[in-house]
Design goal:
Beta Polymerase, domain 2; 5-stranded mixed β-sheet; single chain; alpha/beta
């Protein structure tokens, strides 16, 4: 399927729950509402025309007004890719697990829990993955984090002098 065909199918089946981003990139890029996130992921995996059987990256993002969970998907069968994002509030950001759909989500979800503080509801084993047991210095990928061993980027304006 082409990018346009995928976008048309998604709009027909999820309408007001998705927001297609009109970007100049080869794959579809959409926001899905938090309440339809797991259902949408299951649909992308199960639909025979889409068959997004491969989750090849998942991460988080921190903005001034929100967090986002970001998933990068591919279909080996159909040779197409897709990016989906979910907007989450700054206060108590939560998302449901998608491990039942893509087993590899286990590690990615642990990473966004540890590094961004995004809670993954129903994750079967929420344990430390990257940070040591007892880490109590906040979430290193959040904007403004200055925990132990933090090294600020050099100020480029001062180095030009």
């Amino acid at each position: 399927m082409t990018k346009q065909e995928i976008e048309k199918k998604l709009t027909a089946d999820f309408g007001q729950h998705i927001e297609i981003q009109e970007l100049d990139q080869p794959e579809p890029f959409v926001y899905i509402s938090k309440d339809k996130y797991v259902e949408f992921c299951r649909y992308l995996y199960d639909d025979p025309d889409l068959s997004f059987e491969f989750l090849f990256q998942m991460g988080g993002a921190h903005f001034e007004d929100r967090f986002e969970a970001v998933l990068f998907l591919a279909s080996h069968k159909h040779q197409h890719e897709m990016v989906i994002k979910v907007k989450l509030p700054l206060e108590d950001p939560q998302i449901n697990t998608v491990i039942d759909i893509w087993q590899v989500a286990d590690w990615y979800e642990l990473e966004i829990m540890e590094l961004y503080g995004i809670k993954v509801v129903d994750h079967p084993n929420p344990r430390p993955l990257l940070l040591y047991e007892g880490w109590d210095y906040g979430y290193p990928m959040r904007k403004g984090w200055t925990g132990p061993d933090f090294v600020p980027m050099p100020d480029k304006s001062k180095s030009a002098e």
